[in-house]
Fold:
Amino acid sequence: MLLDYSSSFHYVLALLPELVLTIWGMGVLLAGVSRKQGHGPGQETGWLALAGLALAAVANGWLYFGVSEDGAAAMIAVDRFRLFANWVFILGAGFSIVISLPYVARQRLQAGEYYSLILFAAVGMMFMAAARDLMIIFLGLELMSIGVYALAGFNRRDRRSAEAGLKYFLLGAFASGFLLFGIALLYGATGGTNVHAVAASIADGSAAGALLMPGVALLAIGFAFKVAAVPFHMWTPDVYEGAPTPVTAFMAAAVKTAAFVAFLRVFLVGLEGLHAEWSTILWWISAVTMVAGNVVALVQSSVKRMLAYSSIAHGGYLLVALVAANDTATSGMLFYLLVYTIMTIGAFAVVVTVGNQSEANARIEDYGGFGWRKPVLGVFMTVLLLSLAGFPGTAGFIAKYHLLLGAAESSLWVLAVILVLTTVVSYWYYLRVAWYMWMKEAPEGADSADPAITPFATHLVLVVSVAVILLAGVFPGAALDLAAGSLEGLRGLAAEAGAAAGH
Amino acid sequence: MYGDWILHALIWLPLAGTVHVLVSSAERAKNVAFRWSAFVFVLSLGLWWAYEPGDGGFALESSASWIEAWGVGYSLGIDGISVFMVLLTTFTSAIAILGSFEYVRTRRKAFYALMLLLEMGVVGFFLATDIFLFYVFFELTLVPMYFIVGIWGGERRIYAAVKFFLYTAVGSLLMLVAILYVYFASGTGSFGYDAFVNAGLSLREQLWLFAAFALAFGIKVPVFPLHTWLPDAHVEAPTPGSVILASVLLKMGTYGFLRFLLPFFPDAARHPVVVAVMLALGVIGIIYAAWVAAVQPDAKKLVAYTSVAHMGFVVIGVFALTLNGLQGGMVVMISHGISTGALFLLLGMMYERRHTRLIGDFGGIGRAAPWFATAFVITALASIGLPGTSGFVGEFLALLGTFETHMVVAAIAATGVIFAAYYMLPMVQRVLFNELDRPENRTFADLSRREMAILGPLVALMIWIGVHPTPFLERMEPSVQAVLERVEDARADAGHTLGGED
Amino acid sequence: MTDVLFVLFAVVATGGGIGVVTGRSPVASLLFMVATLASLAGIYVLFEAHFLAAIQVLVYAGAIMVLFLFVIMLLNLGHDYRADLKYGSWFLLSLVVVGLTAGVLVQGLMGTGETGLRAGGAEVAAALDAAVVEKGAVGVIADPLFTDYVVAFELMGLLLLVAIVAAVVLAKPRDPEAGE
Amino acid sequence: MLIPALYLSVALFVIGTLGVIVRRNAIIIFLCIELQLNAVNLAFVALSRYTGIEGQLYVFFVMTVAAAEAAVGLAIIISIFRHYETVDVDKFNLLKW
Amino acid sequence: MITARPESVLAGSGAVSPPAAEWEPILPGLIVLLPLLGFVLNGILALRSARYSSAALREGRDWDPFAGPRPPATHRLPTWIGPGVMALAFALALVNFLGMMAADPHDPVVRSYWGWIVTGDLRIDAAIQLDRLSMIMTLVVTGVGFLIHVFSVGYMGRDPGYPRYFAYLNLFVFFMLVLVLGSGFGTMFVGWEGVGLCSYLLIGYWFSDREKSDAGKKAFIVNRIGDVGFLLAMFLLFQGFGTLDFVPIFAGAEDHFAAGGVTITAITLLLMLGAAGKSAQLPLHIWLPDAMAGPTPVSALIHAATMVTAGVYMVARSSVLYALAPTSQAVVAGIGVLTALVAATIALQQYDIKKVLAYSTVSQLGFMFLAAGVGAFTAAIFHLVTHAFFKALLFLGAGAVIHAMHDAAHHGDGHLDEQDMRNMGGLRRYMPVTCAVMWIATLAIAGIWPFAGFFSKDEIIWYAAAWAGAESNPFGRLYAVYWGLALLTALITAFYMTRLMVMTFHGANRTGKTASSRLHEAPSVMTVPLVVLAVLSVFGGWINVPDALGESFAGLWGALPMSEWLHHWLEPVTHTAAGIQVAGMGEAAHAAPVGGGEAVWALVSTLAAAVMVAAAVRFTSTRRYVRAAEDPGPQGGLRRFVYNKWYFDEVYDAVVVRPVVAGSRWCWKAVDTVVIDGFVNFTGNFARLAGWATSLFQTGQVNMYAFVLTLGVLVVLGATVFL
Structure:
């Protein structure tokens, strides 16, 4: 159907996934607080949240396949770009919730609040993806961030969790100040906050030059912080390490995705006309991020922290797509984000399992001989690591290749070379986990009898993610087409939409 | 009868074997794996007859769309160059699996599964006619090898495995960027072989791309000075790993030279500076590696370095850009695969018996194990290129081909023949000859039936190729000729500078 | 007159800002902050944003700062504090970096002049004033808030809900009975 | 008056930034962040005279966000205070390198 | 330089002569295959017996195949298989030779069996070429080979590795036949390296002895140096002719190469390098004396009669090429004569009986190269044949002596070097037959008329003089020097051989009381071959009595048969070369030197040799020798210098071996480990170091993080605003 907003019900339809999740989140919250604490593991709250996500996914699917919008300048986009991203968020949130189920139970976290915060954060992400207005993006970002700040510090018995929460909060708020300042300057320069209006203003030259570029720079900084690009990444390792592991997975996957999606829409749609100016900055940020992220990951002794640095590096790869700014790169980014979400959460699922649903056993030595004790889990982890490393046969390779293709299309050869060379660096630390798992013996004093209980839910996530990764690694056609098709409406309508917004 | 299905079968049957191994018990794993690999080998033998040399182009071609969005196809084909590589692969895989029965005693299921997986990757690499597909298989071989070395290897296995992996990855990833460049330059939106051959690149572009490809393949070969991963990997790898590594994986590099490097970048390939550099590296490899090999106390390391020397002959043969040189290179590839594979198997047998690889720990084995000694001597002689063995035919042709265009290079390279004796004979002497002065060597068991079954075919092949190589030469000639013509045609219309120089 | 007031407010705001950074005790910083907020409210008035000025004083200076004060007291930081400003080279270095940042920003905005802005600034201001006269200071904001930006408005509601949930979860004392 | 207001905004913003860098007390750091947000608000208000009423609307949003952040942030500070009995951020460095 | 060949030469050559009668060789391939068959059969037996011995070894006991009343089948059958296949091969060769003589074909018969290396324009066939030269060689190889096989039955009869010994020996003969019968350089090279391999295996036959296997290794490596020359020469030839077959190359050489041109000189010099390696010429002669570590019959067969003469054969085979390259010929002759002289001087001071013979072999080979260098290819082959007879005889005789000494040493008191002549003396009493036949061989090698060596050696010296006198020879004076040196060497030869005989067989016995009682004559299976060879040493020279001597006393006024038979027989092979030389230097090249008649020369040289023999007898028999254990060795600078073989080994060790080994170590330890791997590891470590350094910013302090963030803001903003 066509959304023309003739009826206000159309607004409801346009925001259907968000609404579903919001309402469901409140329901989960109520369900959580209405049951007495300490009675049972509270897993059903989690499953309830998952049901909401499923419902949202369905609603999202209906929008994706069945709905188009009239014009494309509305504050909330109903384009496939947003909806594809929504799926990624739902997937990320869903996977995170599944791996949280045993964790939350074991750690006796407050299930209702926990799951509803995840859902609310997901709503914030969805708004970031949907917004064509910088202010909505900001609000979505804050909604997401506040949820995640709380999630990072959720485990009140754990100092590290509290520390992570504090650091994330202080620095996140600090960075959102920059983002906001950027929005203000851009608003002053172009007279609007709608990305299409911004684009139109830039295109017709009415934008005030003096305010424009500092605004763009600050905006870039704000997003760079959220995607953890060097040198705005400093919070990432600490927060990822300190936060409860399922939350880390959620952050690494979904939060980053949301930031990238918004980043992409603002810069590729709104600021497309200034590509020449900002691409240089992002080029350097991307290069530095790839190098620093990978290089520092080399020296990490904690798997969780290593994965944190690796996620920084992945952010660097994704920035390449932003610099390339062509359709191949953009769909590559979408594809990459999807794959990245799956494989990152999969990897963290193993980390959670090795840690016995706690924050224990995070040192790489703890993985010694793990593969032989838990062969299935070991193989899964190996596949996930290979995928993270971008090895052929896995979806990670296809995704990285897609980015390279985009970079090549824009003749970013140096960046492409940096990308592949840093990938080599990344092989080392990903393989290091593999070699501990398969080539070393268990550490002294480890309980070799039954080191890790793998709950059904975690297995579910692992099986699904590994299957998807292998399938998409070998037969990526459908997923690639989906990603490529999801660009529809992002920029194709941008020109006319800009014209429409101009009046 | 033999349709294109055979090629698909050769790739996917090992994978089926992998699965079969994984679901069978640890005790049966080796037999299951061996049967699968033997079956694949027998199946591949048909290619010997099924492949008609003809005009040297691809035969048994089949192509299906794989990743439509990028123009990636699942395209397979075989020609006079790859047919031997495939046969070598299936053959050595079966032999290596048979050769690991005693050596590998732990975690057998995983081991044999990885071996079959490796076979699949290598066969796929040799059969792929789509560049993307080729790249995928090229990389795919790293993982099983990484684990084979890292899990079943010696003391410093992890260092060796990682070194092997990273070294190779550096080259291959840079090649990936180069592949993308050609992909866009060709403008056909296809990763097909023909599209890449006809990409129409300017000389300047070709030189850069050549460098990237040459680096990737040069590491794999390995060409001096990119070789230092090889001794480590060989020393630490378990016997079957070494065998596959030497026999097959190194060939991926030289095969890449023939299949991709020369046809894709003919102008660069015959650029005098490029030729000079490659020949120089080849010659240095021959002599340098021979020298270094000669002073190794570890027998396996010694043989590893000889691989570098042998592959140096391939390099000079290829970059001499003569028919004889290329043919010689091909024969050296095959011969090295057989003889060095056999040497590693023999060293593995030594290790199984004595748990040491130091040459100095042996001596007088010839008395204790005459069959072993006989096989060892024949293999060593084939390795140093004695006429009548496979090694001679290859080295002779490679040197002759080089001599036709680069006399001095060939003259220097020919001294490698001396140094081959310089490294190999002392080892033979110190292992097999000399006094049987260590009591533990007195009980050195002679070859068992299984070991004879492993070495017998290898020795027979060494002698067969040495005495009657014509069936090999005539099958590969048209394809090699086609590669050569591609390079020479480019010379003919050297004026063209299509493609974007941007 | 307005210019004089502006300068006055600007000086107070800046001074208050500096006071926030350099205040010895948390309470002092907080009071400096209140001063800044109040003078900003004054500036808002000068920009004819009367409603915002009121909100600024009520919400910001009133509610939020009180919350801060409350927490400071709760954590007993009102007296039991240690000077926490990092003096020395770190301060100087930071000052240089921050100063340079300011310099760069100012340099970037320098070209702004009246001509550097988008055309039609005066008409916009006039239209704004007219709208205020027509709809009232509240109405002029309420109108877009509940029409065009209704989504944002709802989003704010959700934001506050999340903030409450988060605050409750985090600030709640540990319950040993629940195994915490 | 727009331009001086923007300069004032920049000044307040960087003062806030400085505060974040040089203060150890988490509450004051947060206070400085609030200062930054206020600086931005000032910019919005000033710019709204040239671009329309939305600027003021945004200030409204930002204030709400600030309030929400204040709630969460102070809760987090309370939460960590329970572990460390201090709000000195330099003491919170279990997580590093 | 050469434009046309004189008519006179052409007239007599086969180029215009009517086609010779058709000749069908009888199973020529079988000649080659029979020894291979022997190798396979003996090899199987060897492996079987080795199984027993290794099994015994594992059980910790010694396995003596001769312990029982009858040795096992593995040690009985080789007695028949080894010499048997040789006898058959010899018979077959003889039949073919006689057939060839009867048919008297001019052109070689080439039998191709399969295409060996066929690719592009390269075609190397597995083919054999039967012509006059190769038939002579085949006869020598199979004939002398057969005798030595028979001798080996006695000599090696009680060796545990008996079947293996015969397997190697048969394999050697196979490769040697491939070498001489191969129809091109490619095929020849197979035999060339193959005999090197067998030499390696046989020198190190007693491989448990470190020195012996060292010697084998040394032989192989030094040979390979020569082989590289051979290879490169082949490449040059292939570039010139597009083939490696003899027939087209020799037919086309004249048209292809200008005489004295660079290419042909390079080809011939490279071939000479190969020949020097194989035939132990300076500077690659060092391996041959060490090669005496092998069983003595091996020394006789490989290191005296056949393999080491392969170089001479190859040069003679390539006579056309050498004729086209006068410079190379001068080099060949120079190397030959110098080698002859140096080796002869060394032989003067050696005490090891086999070493003396080894140096004597080197020296005689030098003579053969001198012959080739002066264009007397026939003389070279002639000397090759006679040398095969008398040197094989000498070695086998020495073998018989060692055999006896070995038995004696087993029963003697204390250690006794069974090859040291200082421990011998007076053996004539114990082994009269051996003594007699060895004297015959000594006279033959010394060049005493009418023994075989006289005719062949005399011819060489004579030709050297002829070339020295040829006016248009550009190297005339050089050849004069060669001639003088050759004469000197001939005299030294007579001296050291006589010294050997006197020290071994005459004077007082120094073996020791208990030991000497065990000295005995060799069994008949050994003495019969000795006698046969002795006969050949006497009469072998008569196949090529110069025409000029035929009418003189030296030719017994025509009573000696077959005047210049060999010369005529080989004419089709050598006439092209001869033609070229005559064209270049005129008939003088083949004219009598210094104007004197040949008969006078013969008389003078015989007398001189006889005087040397007498002198040697006098000097050595009056000197008192002490046993090796008590002998401090030679005193005096020159003596020591010669005794230590002119310090060749030491010089090579210092100049070649040590630098190469040191270089290898350097390459490994410095280049590979430090430079290349150092770089590789450095890259990895640098990345980690960089990572570590970067992570230092990650102090965990919020202020720090905010600061870095602000720094980033500054940079980004600055970049945006100012760029």
User: Anything to note?
Assistant: The longest strand of chain A covers residues 2-3. The longest helix of chain A spans residues 159-190.
